[in-house]
Amino acid sequence: MNGPLAGLKVLDISNVIAGPFAAALLGDFGADVLKVELPVRGNAGGDALRALPPHKDGKPLLWKAVNRNKRAITLDLRKPGGRALLLRLLPEFDVLIENYRPGTLDRWGLDKAALWRARPGLVILRVTGFGQTGPYAGYAGFARLFEAYAGLAYITRAPGDAPMHPGYPIGDPISGVFGAFGVLAALLHRAKHPEAPGQEIDLACTEAMLRILEVLPIEWDQLAQVHEPVGNSNAYVSPSGMFRAGDGAWVSFTAATQNVFERLCRLIGREDLLADPRYASNPRRMRHQPELNAIVAAWIGARPAAEAVRALSEAGVSVAPVYSNRDIAADPHFKFRNSIARAQDADFGSVAVPCVVPRLSATPGEVRSAGPAPGAHNAEVYGGWLGLSEAERAALARDGVI
């Protein structure tokens, strides 16, 4: 392993996206991550993410992306033999990531005291929808719930329309980013205080969503004002919106600062707007957003999207084409920076995944492999690490433990 986290060992017993995404972020920067799934029996078992589309030849592509840079074993923690094996593995690891409902591991005899007896100093990241405490602690947690509770779905729509979720469960990876950050904060504390006991991290995914929507609480607290949806307009900047170019493609535009607005006016030949007191500042322009948006829409609509984006960008005005994944793959900037990396994959040779973010100058991370098949490293871990014979492993498999 290379990267700044080389030598760090992470045991990922979480499922779906939020917890596994946190583990994969650590793996991007060199951590040795071992992914644990239920043994596969027919159509049952494995990480539930494997069942979600898209699939190719029956293989789960989303799973491969989310669980990159990991090894994988199967282990049923619901069985006493599975829990015993986990406790035998645990001394090898610095971090445990789990996303069971609060109290589940405790009922299985894997409470934090037992985990810390097996591995003193262990950092335990617990990922749930609503946290380890509170009236909602026992509720199921899924991205759409986080997005709804935290206020994102309420504001993601045009006025009068039904609330809308994003086209991807972004509540999960956002929570995963906070999870990885929490793990690193706890590890830094442990590095400074080696004698300190293990630390438990309570990550509520709904609170992670609240954290990125930071204006919502203060807006209500100080103004008693509900943050209403504005659709593709902008609640903070004018002019701004989503405009259709002359060739039918869509362009996202925003005059983000006073300087940008002035550049826009000069580019489109509307210097007269600069002398109009109604548009002298952004707060004033916000009161006249519809008429300003109409001016921008007419200018963009009179030319192809590529021409409009190039002219605005070269003039220093903030604008972007609205890309599909096909457009992303073809973009020259992304190609130049290798923003889409290739991960080695046992099924398809290699697959495209996002690059490591951010880029460290001295100790960069790397994408090594896509998510492996269930139990791909059972022999390596149970045989090599724990020294179980082939016969012992076969017996555990027959009993449904691995």
Radius of gyration: 25 Å
Distance between the termini: 26 Å
CATH superfamily of the largest domain: Crotonobetainyl-coa:carnitine coa-transferase, domain 1
Envelope shape:
elongated
Indicate the low-confidence ranges by residue numbers.
none
Q: What multimeric state do the chains show?
A: single chain
Structural class: alpha/beta
Keywords:
single chain, 402 residues, alpha/beta, Rossmann fold, formyl-coa transferase, domain 3, 2 domains, six-stranded parallel sheet, 39% helix, 15% strand, elongated
Quick gist of this model?
It is built from 18 helices and 13 strands. It has helices at residues 18-28, 61-66, 80-89, 104-107, 112-118, 143-149, 152-155, 171-192, 205-212, 215-223, 258-267, 282-286, 289-301, 305-314, 325-330, 332-337, 378-385, 390-398, and strands spanning 9-12, 32-37, 55-56, 59-60, 70-74, 95-98, 123-128, 199-204, 240-244, 250-254, 319-321, 340-345, 349-354. Helix 1 (18-28) links the parallel strand 1 and strand 2 (32-37).
